Amino acid sequence: MENPRETHMQNRKGRRLILFPVPLQGHINPLLQLANILYTRGFSITIIHTQFNPPNHINYPHFTFHSIPDGLLETEASTADVIAFHTLLNVSCVAPFRDCLAKSLADVSKEPVACLITDAIWHFTRAVAEALEIRRLVLRTSSVSSFLAFAALPFLPEKGYLPIQESRLEEPVQELPPLKVKDLPVIDTRNAEDLYQLLSRMVKETKASSGLILNSFEDLEQFEMARCRQEFRIPIFPVGPFNKYFPASSSSLLAQDQSSISWLNSQASKSVIYVSFGSVAAINEAEFLEIAWGLADSKQPFLWVVRPGLVRGSEWLEPLPNGFLENLDGRCHIVKWAPQEKVLAHPATGGFWTHSGWNSTLESICEGVPMICLPCFGDQMVNARYVSHVWRVGVHLERKLERGEIERAIRRLMVESDGKETRKRIMHLKEKVDNCFRKGGSSYRALENLISYISSF
Length: 457
Ligand code: UDP
Known about the structure:
Strand content: 5-15%
Number of domains: 2
CATH topology of the largest domain: Rossmann fold
CATH class of the largest domain: Alpha Beta
Bound molecules: uridine-5'-diphosphate
Helix content: 25-40%
Order of helices and strands: EHEEHHEHEHHEHEHEHEHEHEHEHEHHH
Number of helices: 16
Shape: globular
Largest sheet: 7 strands, parallel
Distance between the termini: 28 Å
Radius of gyration: 22 Å
Number of strands: 13
């Protein structure tokens, strides 16, 4: 891993890049990782960000930051309805973003700007970039397979797949193998039309961009990458997984509880199941209790991230029955937020029970940790299908969330011979990641191409 601060000034290219992250943890992490990658390759970096969920400037003394008013009222600054949230921000940020970008472009005290790089969700930035005559590249932070599924979603109601009907859940979606109807990346929102609108505009404005940067690698999604190239006739740069270059910890919005590591230090090799459902997913109290009892009954040690807000209607651990934790006799450690990559890299960690967010999935693959998947919404459904049925590096909790099922899934992964095979497959995938970064490997080449492409502007 490189230290961006150690990159010598004489290696600077005399060109600046302006990046604009979507203000959610799973989007901020890859965008700032990409910014660091491009910084170490000689570009100067300016980050424009919303007031909501600002990145921690202190961890990036080598970047210039500009905060823009996002216009969110207190009641709107919530991820309970992410589609409403993105739809609103794509309107309220237009004027402040345009003004900020125009000022940055006109700032002669800084290097000339080579291009703008925005999250694909910021579809409004295409018109702004065009008006200000600046090239715009797009970063899509999800897997390629889920990006294709999102792109197809607005056309699925007319094919009868949407809205999803209970009786058709197990049916394959002919247009999107290997997905079943229940895997479609639908996201609940107050108005389903908002979802289709947002996705259509994201796809349209990505197609109109100068290039698409992907946090994935060829060997992982070869077939999907080929389909993506057919559908999006723009230069595509699969340079991921970004976390192989830089950890996500410096862009963590919450403090990472380091007691996770001291607790892991006292556990046997590959014995611990690490449980985390990311920064947005929420569950109800009954689900929380089934998870708690399933973990307890599995008899495996577990490190559990219970983020405040994870359980709807609860502050934190109140729904746990009296004496639950005491009865586990030190077999569990619960934190509000963990140093996830360090946890996954720890020799005591033997499995990852995840919500199948894309960053978590990549981080697990990079450390060779097999998964239990409990997708909650959107792209997580697609990622879980690929983890369990395409790469076969995890177990999918597809049926009712019930303590007996959970206990069996954990034991299958952590104790039984099935789990050993799964672990072998993910170790093999981990090797593929390592290879794609070697000289001549696919991500190595994609990054070289990206650098020369941007330098040519
Ligand atoms: N993460 C973390 N500590 C935790 C849980 C998650 O630092 O306790 C990080 C994790 O390493 C990943 C990101 O938060 O980089 C979560 O992104 P992901 O795409 O997996 O899920 P999302 O939060 O977007 O649903």
